[in-house]
Amino acid sequence: MRRGLLTLAVLGGLGLAGAAAIVGFGLYNVSAQVGHLPGVSWVLHTTFRNSVSLRAPAPEEVPPLDDPDLIALGAGHYATACAMCHGALGELQSATARAMVPAPPPINEAVAHWEANELHWIVENGAKMTGMPAWPAEARGDEVWAVVAFLKSIKRDTAPRMPSPTLTGTAYCQSCHGDIGGPVPRLDIQSAEYLEAQLIAYLTGDRPSGIMAQAATRVPEDSFAELAEAFSNKPAAPVLDPVPGEGPGAALARAGTRDVPACLACHGGQQPSKGPRLFGQNEAYLLAQLKLWRDGTLDHDALMAAAARDLTTEDIKTLSRYFAGVGR
Ligand code: HEC
Ligand code: HEC
Ligand code: HEC
């Protein structure tokens, strides 16, 4: 008995010493030219597949993914965040990307074996020690669905052309903000000061968004003021009635309730006293942002965080429809 334990202890010690030698003396060859030892690739890939199946959101949580604006937004993000490794549709991947171990599969192969919920998990979480990055903003799984919508369109063979990844400056911003509505906000209704402050917040991470963090790091920081100026409200917008519209949305925006302050106290008029203009903004964008404020994912402004805290999902729908519908 004691002898057996002793043998085990000695073997364990030798194992540890061996491992320490491999790490300490650099005996393990990390060269990507050598690839993995036989069997290791299989173990890694099987671990990956099972890990994804275990953790992916339930299929019922997958939102509708057929909206052309959502797909176009995903394509826009893919162009600068994914194509460098997985290649553009129908184009050869760069020789350098193909020399990675493991190599990123060409995108049509990468999507072939996964369902939408699994693709969401992969794109949000990435995969350790493979080069596959995680989504660059925390708690913004909602944004990842745009990319999944694009990946699904590839699977269905209906993918739109993605914008050229070589666009720069305003043309680059325009590829989303000029051509896509829905989840992409209009910029032309806002002041340059507001737009510039948002770009800085995206860059520092104060306002979490993987899509806009990517965009804000692709242009020089000293061009923010110029870009904000270029996209901001130019010709004086048509004068609005101070409390336009009727119905439940107008009433809530104007008067609030016991728990919800009047939105128009801050956001009213052509030049809101606080915060951005909401009249004429895209409905899908307003809906998504209000949920993020309500749920505490966005908290970079204490006034707005307090204003949204007690909104019900029904309030959010009513207010988004109201603000989107006025002043278009
Ligand atoms: C720096 C390179 C790199 C970037 C950028 C990258 N990926 Fe990957 N991706 C990889 C690698 C490498 C793998 C393979 C992982 C493996 O085989 O275990 C992978 C795996 C995947 C898979 C799973 C495919 C499979 O069956 O193994 C999907 C889907 C995917 N990536 C989508 C994306 C999307 C969408 C983006 C952009 C948001 C992206 N990737 C950005 C390198 C990258
Ligand atoms: C891939 C598409 C895409 C590109 C490219 C892009 N944007 Fe955006 N932009 C978005 C989305 C989506 C949002 C909403 C993000 C969020 O959830 O906060 C947004 C939000 C913004 C906002 C905040 C607007 C508001 O009402 O608060 C500003 C400002 C902005 N973008 C400016 C730019 C500028 C300037 C560029 C070019 C450097 C650019 N964007 C490039 C998709 C894009
Ligand atoms: C006390 C002032 C105040 C009140 C009341 C208020 N907000 Fe805001 N809101 C703000 C400020 C300030 C911001 C901008 C925060 C920032 O810098 O990003 C904002 C941002 C927003 C945004 C993001 C818009 C965009 O373009 O990204 C939405 C949507 C919004 N508010 C809707 C509402 C609604 C709906 C109500 C009423 C329930 C409301 N707000 C009440 C101050 C307020």
Blueprint of the fold:
Elements: H1 2-24, H2 40-55, H3 68-81, H4 83-86, H5 95-98, H6 107-112, H7 116-125, H8 141-155, H9 169-177, H10 192-204, H11 210-216, H12 224-231, H13 248-255, H14 264-267, H15 283-294, H16 302-308, H17 313-325
The structure holds heme C (3 copies).
One heme C (HEC) binds at residues 73, 76-77, 172-173, 175-177, 183-185, 187, 190, 195, 198-199, 209, 211-212, 215, 219, 227, 276.
Provide structural commentary.
This protein has 328 residues and is an all-alpha fold. It has three domains: 50-155, Cytochrome Bc1 Complex, Chain D, domain 2, CATH 1.10.760; 169-231, Cytochrome c-like domain (Cytochrome Bc1 Complex, Chain D, domain 2, Orthogonal Bundle), CATH 1.10.760; 248-325, Cytochrome Bc1 Complex, Chain D, domain 2, CATH 1.10.760.10. The chain contains 17 helices and no strands. It has helices spanning 2-24, 40-55, 68-81, 83-86, 95-98, 107-112, 116-125, 141-155, 169-177, 192-204, 210-216, 224-231, 248-255, 264-267, 283-294, 302-308, 313-325. Helix 10 packs across helix 11 (210-216), helix 10 crosses helix 12 and helix 13 packs across helix 17. The longest helix is centred in the first third of the chain and has 23 residues, at 2-24. One heme C (HEC) binds at residues 45, 48, 78, 81-82, 84-86, 100, 102, 104-105, 110-111, 113, 119, 122-123, 127, 130-133, 147.
